[in-house]
Amino acid sequence: HVQLVESEGGSVQAGGSLRLSCAASGYTYNRNCMAWFRQAPGKEREGIAAISTRGENTYYVDSVKGRFTTSRDNSKNMLFLQMNRLKPADTAMYYCAASPCVRWRPLRLEDYNYWGQGTQVTVS
Questions:
Q1: Whether the Cβ atoms of residue 53 and residue 37 lie closer than 8 Å to each other
Q2: Kind and range of the H or E run holding 108
């Protein structure tokens, strides 16, 4: 039974920082590529950060480059998203997701088959 569980998000003022984590269980974590997606009210879910199986490659959508960093700890089956210099436009529900890494397109929603329940991030 595959399970992805995000940490609690939160509310933060613009310019602040927040760190999300995602705990994975029920599958071979280090064989999967991982990503963070977010969905704001009335908008489609978008991929914002992705990381390869060993963490050697990372990918970011332009709107978060230089502000967000994703990392993983395969020894603990954990995925992280460090978010700095947050903006009100970053307000959204954030999801972690796992991909089997076959013909992987890092920020494409269709390439991910396991999802967390989501956690709310609000920037004011």
A1: no
A2: none
Q: What is the side-by-side order of every strand in the sheet holding 68-73?
A: 3-6, 18-25, 78-83, 68-73
**Token pair belonging to 118:** 């989501």
Confidence of residue 87 (pLDDT cuts 50, 70, 90): very high
Beta bridge partners of 99: 33
**Of 62, 61, 59, 37, which Cα lies nearest the Cα of 119?**
37
31-76 pLDDT tens trace:
899 999 999 999 999 999 999 999 999 999 999 999 999 999 999 9
Terminal alpha carbon distance of the chain: 37
pLDDT of residue 34: 97
CA 54, CA 41: separation in Å to the nearest integer?
33
Q: What is the largest CA-CA distance in the chain?
A: 39
Which helix (H) or strand (E) segment holds residue 4: the answer is strand 3-6
